[in-house]
Amino acid sequence: MRETGLSRTTVSSLVAELLEEEIVVERSDSARAAPSPSGGRPATLLSLEPSSGGFVGIDFGREVVRVAVANRAGELLLDGRSDRLEVAHRAEEALDVADAMVWRLLEQAELGPDRVISGGVAVSAPVRSDSPGYVSEVIFPSWADVNVAAFFGERLGVPVHVGNDANLGALAEAAFGAGRARRNLFYVMLSEGIGGGVIVDGRIYLGQTGAAGELGHIVVDPDGQICRCGNRGCLATVAGGAALTAALRQIHGPHMTVDELIALSHDGDPGAARLIADAGEAIGRVLAATCSVLDPELVIIGGELAPAGRPLLDSVRGSLERWISPASGHYAVALGELGAKAEVLGAIALAMSHAADEALAPGYGLTGVNAPGATPGSGGPTIAGART
Ligand SMILES: [Zn+2]
């Protein structure tokens, strides 16, 4: 109370309100608390009631939808993923699938819809800076007329914010994963496509149009395959999950997925191992250029391809070392800690940070991301159980 500068009466009435709404509860050890310095009755100890509210996160990947529900304290309650579907080309179906998953998870988590504080959505396409809520129709062709934020905002009756999936993956790894306590990061999301997110001085750097960090569309082979962006020979056409699985389909059949590619590589399949090593080489070469520009403390490799593990990491590291200018020094590369859930957890982190900004959930900021010099876990939210 002393720190707030508020009067005892004001604080009492605020606390009464929070107690009535069951946002905070009186702790059982209150009775043992020391008397106040002025000799008054012992202070009442309060703690947050996590079940009193929560956040919804949705992640629209290229071929899968993920949904997660976290409580008010930011602890992951439940999450799930859809079957494979054509997200980019079937907006309506993807929105319906996500919507049904949200309501099912809220029910299973016993979090009433009236208790949802806000929502976040990650989309595997650039978010349009000229029309917030909409995503790039170049990458998600069927989504041109879809205001994703408005759609889920209306369904949930709370503010919903939209971000690019790689940016939100970067946010999640910075706040809760491999990038904790680092101020300058580059996050590479290796999934069906390739995305990237830049954390500069503890904050997401979006650039002029929100496309900062998009290393997947850097041209590495001018005579290569046509990319979904319309260019030729982008990194994604060489080292993206879709390109890698396509390369194995002639040998292993038409239904090859990234997960199966990784399983094959773990089993010692020479073709799969070669593909992952070559992908790491191509990615490392682009990272050498990226690191020369950004000079990050750490590069984090995340996304669906990250479980390929050591062979992928070693190949990326070796290539980066080989191609970086000797004048630039050494750059550390690590695997992400949040696995395929990074983006959906980033969506929840986005919802929480906006809720803090909008004072819908007082006291909730993204410690470790937005607060200079903050120590992770020193009062900001944590997403327990996030590691996969
Ligand atoms: Zn491209």
Summarize the structure.
The chain is an alpha/beta fold. The chain is built from 10 helices and 12 strands. Zinc ion is lined by residues 217, 227, 229, 231, 234, 236.
Please tell me about this protein's structure:
- The chain has 388 residues and is of the alpha/beta class.
- The protein is 34% helix and 16% strand.
- The longest helix has 25 residues.
- The protein is globular.
- The structure holds zinc ion.
- Zinc ion binds next to loops.
User: Which series of helices and strands comes N to C?
Assistant: HEEEEEHEHEHEEEHHHHEHEH
Instruction: Report the uncertain regions.
Output: 360-388
SSE class? alpha/beta
Number of helices: 10
Largest sheet: 5 strands, mixed
Q: N- to C-terminal separation?
A: 40 Å
Strand runs, count: 12
Quaternary class = single chain
Mean pLDDT value: 85
Bound molecules: zinc ion
Strand content: 15-25%
Globally, the shape reads globular
